[in-house]
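I am writing to request your help with a piece of structural work I have in hand. The matter concerns a single protein, recorded as an amino acid sequence and a row of backbone structure tokens. Could you please explain, in whatever detail you think fit, how the structure tokens follow from the sequence? Thank you for your consideration; the sequence and its tokens are set out here:
>
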Amino acid sequence: MDVLTQAQKDAFETDGYLVLESRLSPAELTALHAEVDRYTAKARGLTEGTDELDLEDSHRPDAPRVRRIKLPHTHSQVMADLMRSDTILAPVRDLIGPDLRLHTTKLNMKEAGHGAAVEWHQDFAFYPHTNDDVLAVGVLLDDMGMENGPLMVFPGSHRGPIHDHHANGHFVGAMDLARDGYDMADAVPLMGPAGSISIHHGRIVHGSAVNRSTRARRILFYEMMAADAWPIMGSMTKFSTLEDYDSRMLCGRSRQPRLADIPVRIPLPAPPIGKTIYEIQKGLTARAFETVEQ
């Protein structure tokens, strides 16, 4: 293996997550902070979101609040270069093999005092694949503690069912935690200093609360899978041609799909509103986290 120990790999298989502290260099972290500042400046004066920026519901043109930077690898060279570096890919290769394909990227911006919650969900509910060598790498841009809304997971839940993420007859991208037998007291926060990375399995149940602290909580997510995991029809993974799909290879080569005996649900009927998880989850009727708009 490149960077992980066997004990770390075993822990990921058992628990469904890892935190690797101080994985980024100070220079890499500084460059990312500068990029975030550049995008935040773009939000000033906007009355609605753009192809690059998703705005908080409480955003105002004179008081900009960015909720998410969408697909940053397509318009930030800094974030694209980091995505393809061994800083990110080496531990992923250790976990799921040498052939990796990108699913998507996003930078969730939980700014101090108002960063939106993300309700409990499983990524695999959004994009089921032929096998579950699917994961997300989170790059912590800020020191992460309980007070600023860290990502939280239920250890071992990646080895259980894919829960129902529907309400009122359509997909809402979130679970009813009580109905599905989970107690918030059992959730584990993924915390660490800025420059650390978290890795969580695509089937693990996870979410995060509102950031009510005086510190930002920004995480850059690179979601990827083994190249032999192919999307199942109805998945939210979209591609136009085989060439388009092959262009998402991060390392190694594309391979024939591998089928595994795993639980699957299809995210249909499609949500009536929204393209981001924040909008989709507004259809949820039983929320676990409070909301804040100020």
